[in-house]
Write a structure and sequence with these properties.
The protein is of the alpha/beta class and 339 residues long. The chain has helices at 18-42, 68-75, 91-96, 101-108, 142-155, 173-185, 204-207, 214-219, 232-247, 285-295, 301-324, and strands at 83-86, 132-134, 161-166, 189-195, 198-199, 202-203, 224-227, 253-258. The longest helix has 25 residues, at 18-42.
Length: 339
């Protein structure tokens, strides 16, 4: 059986085979390794007085540590011809969807060799080769995903769009308008809601009237499911069914995944509002999945170390490429900005 890899579909039927499970773990480790490196260089060379912007990575930084199962489970079923619109916390989906790591890292470092020639930064990654985009505006990716899905439907190619947002953005008008139109036109789109329990510093229970946004999918006549426990294999199964429906012309599906924000809403967030911080490390999905694969006899210490080493090599190569790339010339500040 063909194993799942970032940016390629997997003909999964029933229980996942061993190589596929290890491959899911491999992608999760790559994502975490990448974000740890970005976090390291974001704080590099900063003095005792914390001041955002003095590190090697400019601007704000929103990292997705803990949310890897969502991106990996969904993107295992996609090809580079499918579209993904992500959030302001986009790295896990970008990597799982097969974005070039060097170009992505250079963009995050604000370098001329980046995806947007260093003009967009980490919240505005655009990659035509993988049909990937993201935005700092919450729920902004839903309407463009509908436009892409409509084009795919008209072309009859079987391509689909995946639109990702957080649970807080599910209260935005763009979210509801998009669900309504997608259901009405039976568009080939999969809506993904990442419920990490916190909309910046506000718990979901204080901002949202329903316990699960899957309820809202049903209200628009869209099949919807809440995936619990931040389980990559459960996400993989739910996504396989949703993607198959979309490709078959059966319309949209809404998947809400209960996931985990391991670090702050942004780098520098002290998270004083969170009473669950002591429990967070034990909920990290990567060590938990490694243990599960070990118990199944699929991953020993040597294999896990090899996966970690390979991820580190890839990530450090991308970081070195970014650091050695030129900064944009201030005289060209207006270039590449306007269509």
């Amino acid at each position: 059986m063909t194993t799942a890899t970032p940016g390629r579909p997997h003909p999964m039927q029933g229980e996942l085979d061993g190589p596929t499970r290890v491959d899911l773990y491999r992608t999760m480790v790559l994502i975490r390794t990448f974000e740890e490196a970005i976090r390291r260089d974001y704080y590099a060379d900063k003095g005792p007085g914390f001041d955002i912007g003095k590190g090697l990575v400019p601007g704000e930084m929103h990292l997705a540590a803990g949310q890897e199962p969502v991106a990996v489970g969904v993107c295992a079923h996609l090809t580079a011809d499918d579209a993904v619109t992500a959030t302001h916390r986009p790295h896990h989906f970008a990597i799982a969807h097969g974005m070039d790591l060097r170009a992505m890292t250079a963009e995050i470092f604000g370098r001329e060799t980046g995806l947007g020639h260093g003009r967009g930064g980490h919240m505005h990654l655009f990659d035509p080769s993988t049909h990937f985009s993201c935005s700092g505006i919450i729920a902004e990716g839903y309407p463009p995903a509908l436009g892409q899905a409509f084009a795919f439907q008209r072309q009859g190619t079987g391509r689909i769009a995946v639109a990702v947002t957080g649970e807080g953005a599910a209260n935005q008008g763009a979210f509801h308008e998009s669900l309504n139109l997608a259901a009405l036109w039976k568009l080939p789109v999969v809506f993904v809601v990442e419920d990490n329990e916190w909309g910046i510093s506000v718990p979901r229970s204080a901002s949202t009237s329903v316990h699960s946004n899957a309820t809202r999918g049903v209200s628009y006549g869209i099949p919807a499911e809440r995936v619990r426990d931040n389980d990559v294999e459960a996400v993989h199964l739910a996504a396989s069914q949703a993607v198959a429906r979309a490709r078959a012309g059966e319309g949209p599906t809404l998947l809400e995944v209960h996931t985990l924000r391991l670090w702050g809403h942004f780098e520098g967030d002290a998270q004083g509002y969170r009473g669950d911080l002591d429990d967070v490390p034990a909920r990290d999905p990567i060590p938990a999945y490694r243990a599960a694969l070990g118990a199944a006899g699929l991953l020993d210490d040597a294999a896990a170390k090899q996966i970690a080493d390979e991820a580190s090599t890839r990530v450090e190569d991308a970081v070195t490429f970014a650091k050695e790339s030129p900064l944009p010339d201030p005289a060209d500040a207006g270039a590449y900005v306007f269509a």
